[in-house]
Specification:
The protein is α/β, with parallel strands linked by helices. The longest helix is centred in the first third of the chain and has 12 residues.
């Protein structure tokens, strides 16, 4: 069964920040989502830091093509009817995804 929401995080050379962004998604009140991280050609420790999350996220790498290309690639891996984007230098409060989902489905 597909998740309700695909959360897509594009990132580029933000190893420490993307971990905090991922943690904020994993701490959401709503749990029916998939988390997709698109690494836009990072040369820092992004891959190593995200490997610790195992199956809790889907991690894909691509050659550096910019944030729009990374978002679009994330959409191609998405399996949910709704998509939410989070930049890798941002955080979500725990109710964010549930509030957005409720608004979009009512």
């Amino acid at each position: 069964m597909s998740p309700e929401v695909s959360v897509i995080i594009p990132t580029y050379n933000r190893a420490s920040m993307v971990v905090e962004a991922v943690e904020s998604v994993l701490a959401q009140d709503m749990t029916d989502f998939e988390l997709i991280v698109i690494d836009d050609g990072s040369t820092d420790e992004t891959a190593e830091r995200l490997s610790a999350y195992g199956s809790r996220l889907k991690y894909y790498q691509q050659e550096n093509a910019g944030v729009s290309a990374a978002r679009n690639r994330g959409i191609t891996f998405s399996t949910a009817p709704l998509i939410a984007f989070l930049d890798s230098d941002d955080l979500w409060l725990p109710p964010k995804l549930q509030v957005q989902h409720t608004y979009m489905t009512e």
